[in-house]
Structure formats: C-alpha cells, structure tokens
Design a protein that fits this description.
Length: about 50
C-alpha cells in the first residue's frame, strides 16, 4: 500500500512532465530527472531560531 502523500507527489510529477511535453520515449532514454526536496515545518522553525 502506498502512502497518500507519495501518491500525490507522483501524480504531480506526472502532470508536470505531461505539461512540459516530456514523452514516454524521452523518459525511457533516461535523459529526464525529477528531484524532490522536503522539509518538516519543525525544521523550518528550528532553523529560523538558530539564525536569530
């Protein structure tokens, strides 16, 4: 079973690739990459406190 957040990310990536005109052939050739970053809200708050 897939985590609902992972499913949502994959759906968004799929839509972005389609909107960008990336074809299945281009994906199969391996010349396209998708990079995703994530930070927890706690991490943002803690880093702001350290800066101040």
């Amino acid at each position: 079973m897939m985590d609902p957040q992972q499913r949502l990310v994959l759906q968004c990536v799929h839509m972005a690739l389609e909107d960008g005109g990336i074809t299945r052939v281009e994906l199969q050739r391996g010349k396209t990459g998708v990079y995703i970053g994530k930070i927890e809200k706690k991490g943002i708050l803690n880093s702001e406190r350290k800066i101040r």
